Amino acid sequence: MMVSHRMRLALLAVSLVGAARFAAAADAPPPPETLKPPPGWQLAWSDEFDVDGLPDPKKWGNDTTFNKRGWFNHEQQYYSAPRAENAVVRDGKLLITARKETRSAAIDFGGQRYTSARLLTRGLAEWTYGFFEIRAKLPCGLGTWPAIWMLGSKGEWPANGELDIMEHIGRWPGRVLSTVHTPAGSGAHGVGAAVTVPDTCGAFHRYQMLWTDRDITFGIDGVNSLTYPRLDVGAAGAERAWPFDAPQFLLLNVAIGGDLGGPVDDGIFPVTMEVDYVRVYQAPKAR
Question: I want to staple 279 with a disulfide (CB 3.0 to 4.6 A). Which of 46, 58, 125, 237 is the partner?
Fold first, then answer.
């Protein structure tokens, strides 16, 4: 079952308005920042990456689950267990690096020609609602596919919901995607927006998401790009279109190739996503 016609039109209208507003900023003074933590919300969790070495194991795990079987979307990378060559904290930044190399001696090697890292907070930190801000500089190059995103910690995809705060495809330099995936619309039928940030590969930007029990808004540097509302579509429709009243965990990764990443230029490696900080704000808990 696809998204209903009425719901698709409403969400598409919101998406296009947000994208147009952000794109217009290229030829005008920077718009005022409107996307920020609501008044009274407090910092609930963060990683400032201020201790050199491997990422803090109390905050981040390494997802290696599908190395042997092969990762989703025909991606071509092998995701390493803790290994400084693929994920390390240095000089106040988390560096996630994809390399052209094989790990053929690894027990879970699946024939991949590239290595990378997929970090996640599953089982360590999970949230229901919040304001999420990740300041990062993205890698460029044909075949790169860095992402900052969230998945529901219970159930199967897409029933548990997916929130893509940021995806960037190397063959579309400067085009940043934000997408919502649910049982009502997932994969190529997810609801999303694309905005142009010309220097996304050469400068740090703040990738943001405000998630409440009413709607989810994505943006960059305080400017909204997409709002996904909780629409009144009846009980059955609401369950399919809004699986977002349950905990989700955060993921940071650099994928290579695949259905969206496309052809890979071997001359670009190594390529690195730099993350300055990850911050999560939430409303104070009622006493």
Answer: 46
Residues 6 or more apart in contact with residue 68 via CB below 8 angstroms: 108, 109, 110
Q: Please name every residue paired with 195 in a beta bridge, in sequence order, or none if there are none.
A: 176
Annotated active-site residue 167? The verdict is: yes
**Considering the entire predicted model, what is its pTM?**
0.90
In a domain, residue 192? The reply is yes
The span from the CA of 103 to the CA of 219, in Å, is 37
Residue 239 has pLDDT above 90, yes or no: no
pLDDT tens figures, 100-114: 999 999 999 999 999
Q: What is the pLDDT of residue 287?
A: 66
Out of 75, 126, 133, 162, pick the active-site residue. 162
Point out the least confidently predicted range of 76-90, 171-185, 189-203, 223-237: 223-237
pLDDT at 283 (0 to 100)? 96
Q: Catalytic annotation on 162?
A: yes
- Does residue 198 belong to any structural domain of this protein? yes
> Which residue type sits at 66?
F
Q: In this structure, is residue 287 part of a structural domain?
A: no
Are 143 and 259 in contact by the 8 Å Cβ rule? The answer is no
CATH classification of the domain holding 45: 2.60.120.200
Nearest-angstrom CA–CA distance, 259 and 187: 11
Q: What is the largest CA-CA distance in the chain?
A: 56
Residue range of the domain that includes 26: 5-282
CB 241 within 8 A of CB 2: no
Give dist(CA 96, CA 74) in Å, integer: 20
Q: Which residues pair with 133 in a beta bridge?
A: 208, 279
Q: What is the count of structural domains for the chain?
A: 1
Question: 75, 126, 167, 274: which one is catalytic?
Answer: 167
